[in-house]
Write a structure and sequence with these properties.
Layout: H1 7-14, H2 18-29, E1 43-49, H3 68-75, E2 78-80, E3 83-84, H4 90-99, H5 103-106, H6 122-127, E4 132-136, H7 143-146, E5 154-156, H8 170-183, E6 190-196, H9 214-227, H10 239-270, E7 275-281, H11 301-304, E8 305-306, E9 308-312, E10 320-322, E11 326-327, H12 331-338, H13 356-360, E12 370-377, H14 405-420, E13 427-433, E14 437-442, E15 448-451, H15 468-485, H16 496-504
Parallel strand pairs: 1-6, 1-7, 2-10, 3-11, 4-5, 4-6
Antiparallel strand pairs: 2-9, 3-8, 7-9, 12-13, 13-14, 14-15
Bound molecules: zinc ion (ZN).
Length: 509
């Protein structure tokens, strides 16, 4: 919400070009306007999990026990019930997490676009303020090419091991991080970013998630239909197909939980300082909601609602569940304030605000709207051989799906190929949400407005009914878009080799 206090900043910012804005940001972010207190500085561990739907974690009410460790971390810490992603795509969301800016402001509006050179990240600021900074990420195609390795004394991805196109499993990424931390002195505070890829397609977990018996399996399917908006029609009316997809996805979620537990235990033994852990996801996944399997195309709730758990090993925060909406852009100022480097008052240009007052007490609770955006699609994605929706394997049905892992994977692979080939919606999209409503503005298609208290699955479009709530959301959206218009400039693209890798994954700018 624009307040009287920050409106002058907002008006000023709308009159400046992006270069000046970047310079202003740089001044704020580099410490010229920030004085860091260095007496009490915890280690900061940021864990971002790719394609991590909040509603598939136990602490967000899931039926299955997919995340026993993260649940315990949340129970002994703080869980944000309404954390909203900046976008439904990997690089834009991560760049917002690390910079505190909306995607149109930092410049990486989709995978393959670069973070602008004037944008400072939390790693850059912490690295010059006395922190040792290190990142261990699980994919080579996204972060280093976009410029998100900036500010890290150590930045490792599969390419660091000579694997430019590979993906590391959570187990591997965490092992590399543990090995590195074990070699470091702990005379300096540490900022560690861990990115884990496992719940991203193709969903090939070492262990599928399995229900204990048939009764539990039936109860699970009922839960998905009743509580998670699952659409059996998407799965050809076959509960076994629904279970196949969820067993695979949840198996990946469980693998992440196991890896984070291991990381937490090792860091606890290796470091003497207290640590603050922040765990989130970069975006969700369709999993059949809104007739869509993947991410990147839409801004519905299942795409944007991500976990956000904050845990301090020295119990500096009271345990709580916080319903006030939080955004990816809040993580940047929160980490800086925890490090003793508060950025200062919020503005409409600097998208986020520190969550520290909320972490200490939710008395700071207020009504808040979050903002998300999706790249512009100008033409359907190129359809190379990897995106041919026709594959030769016939999909088995019912229990036959479970006769072999090959058959299950063939079914999931067919869904992935079909949806990668159709990962397109013309124009741009912007979402404004709060605890109850969702407004999705689409530049080339009709707008969408949902009241999730009556329609949690976002199926009944109320746009155009001239409600007070929709009008309020539209006013806020207009304010943000005015600011973003100042950031509109041509994107810088990654080099052709990287673009080709992204194209092979179905993410074409
Ligand atoms: Zn992602």
């Amino acid at each position: 919400m624009v307040t009287d206090n920050n409106r002058p900043i907002f008006m000023l910012m709308t009159t400046l070009n992006v270069g000046v804005l970047a310079a202003a940001l740089l001044a704020i972010a580099c410490g010229t306007l920030v004085s860091c207190k260095t007496d009490v500085r915890p280690d900061l561990v940021l864990v971002t999990v790719d394609t991590f739907r909040a509603d598939h974690l136990g602490c967000y009410g899931y039926f299955r026990n997919t995340t026993p460790f993260l649940d315990s971390l949340a129970n002994d810490g703080i869980i944000f019930e309404n954390a909203i992603a900046a976008s439904s795509t990997t690089v834009p969301s991560h760049a917002t997490i690390l910079s505190g800016l909306h995607p149109s402001q930092h410049g990486a509006r989709t995978n393959g676009e670069l973070v602008r050179s004037g944008v400072r990240t939390v790693a850059e600021i912490l690295s010059v303020s006395g922190y040792q900074t290190a990142a261990f990420v699980s994919t080579s195609a996204n972060f280093r090419p976009a410029g998100l390795d900036r500010g890290f004394h150590c930045f490792e991805d599969p390419g660091s091991q000579g694997d430019k196109t590979g993906i590391f499993a959570a187990r591997t990424t965490v092992d590399r991080a543990i090995e590195w931390v074990s070699r470091e002195e702990d005379d300096q505070p540490l900022f560690l970013w861990i990115h884990l890829w496992d719940p991203h397609t193709p969903y090939q977990p070492e262990q599928m998630f399995t229900d204990r018996n048939e009764t539990e399996a039936e109860q699970f399917v009922e839960f998905m239909l009743r509580e998670r908006c699952a659409d059996l029609g998407f799965f050809d009316g076959d509960p076994w197909k629904l279970r196949t997809v969820m067993d695979a996805y949840d198996g990946e979620v469980k693998a992440v939980d196991d890896a984070v537990r291991d990381l937490f235990d090792h860091i606890g033994k290796l470091r003497r300082r207290p640590a603050v852990w922040v765990v989130t996801g970069d975006h969700g996944e369709g999993l059949g909601n809104h007739d869509w399997f993947l991410h990147g195309r839409y801004l519905y709730r299942e795409q944007l609602h991500v976990p956000l758990i904050v845990h301090a090993t020295d119990d500096r925060f009271p345990c709580s569940r916080i319903s006030t909406p939080a955004a990816h852009s809040d993580i940047f100022p929160t980490l800086l304030e925890l490090a003793g480097c508060p950025v200062g008052g919020s503005s409409d240009y600097r998208a986020g605000r520190s969550l520290l007052p909320l972490l200490m007490t939710e008395s700071q609770r207020d009504h808040r709207l979050t903002f998300s955006e999706r790249r512009r699609f100008g033409r359907p994605p190129a359809r190379g051989p990897g995106h041919d929706p026709e594959i030769s394997v016939e999909s088995p049905v019912g229990r036959e799906l479970y006769d072999s892992e090959d058959q299950r994977q063939a079914y999931v692979a067919r869904l992935i190929r079909r949806h990668l080939a159709d990962n397109f919606e013309i124009g741009q999209a912007f979402a404004v949400t709060d605890e109850r409503y969702t407004l999705i503005h689409r530049t080339e298609l009709e707008d969408l407005f949902f009241d999730r208290s009556l329609d949690p699955c976002e199926r009944h479009n109320l746009s155009g009914t001239n409600s007070v709530a929709e009008n309020r959301f539209r006013e806020r959206l207009a304010e943000i878009l005015t600011v973003l218009a100042e950031s509109a400039q041509d994107a810088e693209l990654a080099d052709p080799e990287v673009l080709e890798q992204l194209r092979s994954l179905g993410y074409v700018p």
